[in-house]
Structures are given as C-alpha cells and as structure tokens.
Amino acid sequence: MALYAAAGPQAQAPPLPNRPNSLKFAAIGDNGTGDTPQYEVGAQMAKLHASFPFDLVIMLGDNMYGGQSPSDYVKKFERPYAPLLAAGVKFQASIGNHDQPAQVSYNLYNMNGQRYYSYARNNVRFFALDSNRMDPKQVEWLEAGLKSATEDWKICYFHHPLYSNAERHGAAVDLRVKIEPLFVKYGVNVVFSGHDHVYERLKPQKGIYYFVSGSGGQLRKGNMGSSEQTAASYDRDQSFMAVEVAGNQMFFQTITRTGATVDAGEINRQTRTSE
Amino acid sequence: MSNPPVSSPRRGALPRLSQFALDHLLLLPLGAAIALAWVNFSAESYYTFTYRISFAVNDVAMVFFFALMTKEVVEATAPGGELHSWRRVLLPVVAAVGATTVSALVYVWAVNRLEEPMLVVGWPVALSTDIGVSYLVARLIFRRHSSAIPFLLLLAIASDVLGFIMLAVFDQVGDAHVVAGSIVVGVAILLAYGLRRAGVKTFWLYLIGPGAVSWWGLFWSGMHPALALVPIMPFLPHGRRDPGFLVDAQPTAHDALSQFEIWWRYPAHVTLFFFGLVNAGVPLHALEPGTWGMLIAALVGKPLGVLLAAGAAVAVGLHLPRHVGWRELFVIGLTAAIGFSIGLFMTTALLTVGQLRSETSMGVLLTLVAAPLAFIAAKLLRVGRFAPAASAR
Question: Within chain B, where are the H helices?
C-alpha cells in the first residue's frame, strides 16, 4: 500500500488517477442529519464530481436521523445531493440502526425492497449488508454470493464496523466473529462501514482493508482512541471518501466538508492462495 | 423439598424454595456475571466459544428449563394446586394484558423517541417477566399468605404466555414453515393425549415421543424449539397434591411430573448456568437506546399497565383481591418488571447477532434493578412486610 498522507488536513491533495474506464465511486456514512454540515459535504462531493466523474455512491447506513417522512427524504437526502442526483449518480444504500425499515423501498436508495443485496460494477462485486440483523439466511446468502462471485474485487459495506477504535461504539466483535471468517475464506478485499462518527483506516486485518467512514453528516469530535490497529484517522470534521478501482489497484482519498484531504492512498489487490 | 411450610412470621421472611429455584437464582446470575466479565476482557474468545454452544444451550437444553417451569404451572393450577382455588384469576390476567400492552407501547415509543427505529422488532421482549426471581422478590416483600403472591404469579405466567405467543407469531429467524410445523406440533399434542388416555405413567415416553415430535415441529416452523415440552407437560400424570410453587418434588413421588423433575432438575441447573454464560455477555458500551428503551418499558410500562388495567377492570365490576389495594398493585407491577431469564431468552430468539441484541440484552439485565426498587416502593408505601403491624398483610 502506498500512502500519500497519514492523517491531518492537506492543502494540496494528490488527485486520484482519474483513469478512463476505471470504477469511480464515493462513500458516505451517518449522513442524513439535514443539517448544514451534511449539505457542505454534499457540496464537496458535487465539486469533486466535476473533476472526478464518479457515478456511484455507497451509503454506509444511518442514512436518515430523526423524522423520516417524505419531507425528510427531501431535506436529508434529495436536497443535499441534488447536483449528484441530477447528474445521474446512483446511490446504493445499506441501512443502519437509525434508519426506518421502510427505507429499503425508497427508489433513490436503489435497494429494491431488500435489506441486503449485491451488484457488480466493472471488475468489482459489491455486497451491501444489513448489520442490524445478521440472521442465518443473510449469512447463507452472503456465503453463496461470495463463493460464486467472479469479479476481481469483492467489496462489502454495512453499518456496524467489524474494527473501529473510536471510543463511542468501537468494533462490533460479535458480528466480526460471525462473518469475518467468510470474508477471509472467500477473499473479500475491502470493507466499508460507518456507525462511529469519525474517519478511520485500519491496518489490514487478516489481509482485509477496513475503513470506517461515519462522518458524512454526523461528527463526534475527538472521539478517536489510540490503537496500533489504526493506520490513519480523522475526527475533527465531517468527511466522505472518494475511491477509484483501476485494474488491480484501488485508490482512495478522504475529503472533509471544507475540501481538505485528510487521508489518501493506494491498495494493490491482495493475491489469494486460491487464485 | 420436604420441609414443612414455614409458619412463623420471622422464618417466613426467608421463603423456602426448591433447589431448582435457588439454582435458578444463583447459577443463572453466576453464568451471566462470568459472561459480562469475559466479553469485556476478551470479546473475540467469548463470542467464538459461545457461538459454538449456543444452539445446544438455547434450542436444545433450554427445553428442560421451560418444561420444569411448565410443570410448576401445571401443578399449581391443577386441583389441589396453589393457584387452583384462587378465585380471582380474571383480574391478574387482565392486569397482565395491561402490563404487557403498556410496556410494549412504551418500548416502541421509547426506541422511536431515541431515534433507533430498527429496535422496534424487539417489542415482545418487553412483555417478559422472570417468574422465579419476581416470585422470590414478592415472597420477600409480602407475607406468605398474602393474596398479592398468587396475583403476582398469575400475572407473571400470563405475561410470559402472551410473550411466547407473540414470539411464535413474530419470530422471523429461520425458514418459516409455520402451517406445516404447527400441524406437526398438533400431532405431538395428540400423541401426548393418546399416551395419557392409554394410562402411560413414565415421562420418558412423553419425552422421546411427543416431546421430540414437538421439538422438530417448532424447529421446522421457525418458532422456538426450546418451548417444545410446554404443550406436552400438561398431559403428564401428576400427583394429587401440589407441594407448592417452586418447591421440590418429594423423592418418593412416583407421578410422571415429579419423576420428570427429579431426573431433569440437575441438567436444568447446568443449562441455566450456560444459558447465562451464552446470552448475557454484552459489552459495557452497549448502553445504547435499546437498553434505555427496555428499561423504561419495564419500569414504567409494567406498573402503569397493571394499574390502568386493574382500574378498568374495577370500573366494570371486578373486585381487587382481599388486602390488595392500589399501593400493592404498584409494587406488584414493579416486581413483574424483572425480565432477566425470560427476557434474555426472548432477546436471543428475536434479535440476531449484533448491536441491537447487545443493547436489548443489556436492558433486560438492568431490569433486575426493579427488585430493589420494589423493596423501596414497598417501604415508602408501607406495603407487605413494611405495613404497620395492625394492618399487616
């Protein structure tokens, strides 16, 4: 892995390669507050989109806080991301503990009524999971999906982080013991989660790269604890992630609501013994 | 237990309970305490170990715990039983409907208010009452022959029956073949009825025949198989006299129910320890909205529900039991707020692995605070043993 920044705002962020035909996407978590910081993050995403034309946003849960009436969907989702929606960017949501179950049927979240689902983009297979209820059916479905996936990259995302060193919630170890063996067995490359309202990049755990990006609207300032597991973290401002997958490389950049880059780097696709 | 009933008021302050009841009160908390310590020191090893044994404990071994609890209820409500001749059965059942309804509503309101709507699915947990612990607390607060004790028992039993019905209806874990599974359970009940009609007196045939069929039927239906013996136990022949609620069967008792208890009480003790170990391990950072929602539902919803339902019942012509007034009802409602073992069982059955289960389990564990609160309320309201001598009840 090559790193451009360990942590902390950088005035001049190294741009993502922005290669033609690469998969470009953004990741936001814990975003749906309807408050000014969410709108400012949305504006930064739109600004980035002008130069880095991503066409996918993965949502890491807690897509909406408080009321979830039709007007809340406008205030807490459609308006903050209006430029992206107008540009045809597709949002693919997973659900968190603050989300109403009915969100799975909201058209613009593209969940098609499913709590968990899978889709492929370019050479990447995504698995959006429901970490609120990891029932045996979902685990069976996940195993079957991971086993049959033929894409080069397998990326899972869901709300509760398997690894996190934020002090408020921390790692969902019970969930980790349940599903991480599948991730390892079937060669998951990268995992994105939210829940803790900070940004954290973990050192590879059992060969898998984990990111916590739970400050797309919420923020818990100063909540990061210290741990040797942490590769980089940022808990001073709201942020989102921009990601580019090109062949066997994945580039990422973490950008705050003021446009500062607080982390960036490159991941080479892990070689599995079975490959 | 073969000891005679305690008659002196002084000795009566410490109720005599069966070994089963005492172990329930000791081994389960011991398992829970070890689980809490273990998960907070080494979470990964705790979950790795408990996931391996959870099916054996929760879905198989717990069958015998619920069978023994059912046995107590069957004996207590049969002719000669402690609750059989108790004439005002309707009021505690009405109170149970009130307590469970209000606590469920309070729970749903609370988790929505606390902005964690995903927790709503856990509402049946708010119905649960730990019969053993709440009975002990009631025995310590009220005098031995107080009408408040059978009232509390019936309230607790009815609440749990309602909870189990809701669990059967709303438990969505596993592949649901509800109709086919229910037919299989119906066949098991018919088999048990046939054995009873044929005069079969050994519990083993009820266990390996109808019991096994019932377990399979529940498992297949998607409902919880730990309840497999609940519909079978009433068909086991029982003695003419009930030794008392949560009082051990006499070693010389030869009826099938007593023999069942004598055989299975020790495996049930071990099960309770492991049940606490497997299900009570929640990280301390799980003090989240689900925790507070469950606690508020129990501590506010149960007493409020009892008072509202009893008030409505009295308004339409039912009578409160002798020496049980509104103050006693409040204390009874608070005592019934203790969810503990049944609450943990319901949580495990309803919520899958993850934060929602941890939050709810923590709330269930904290409902134990209802025990000291019931004592404080009894003292402040001068209820039960705290009543002035002239009006002692």
Answer: 9-12, 19-41, 43-54, 62-77, 90-113, 131-141, 148-170, 178-197, 203-206, 212-221, 256-279, 289-296, 302-315, 326-335, 340-350, 355-366, 370-381
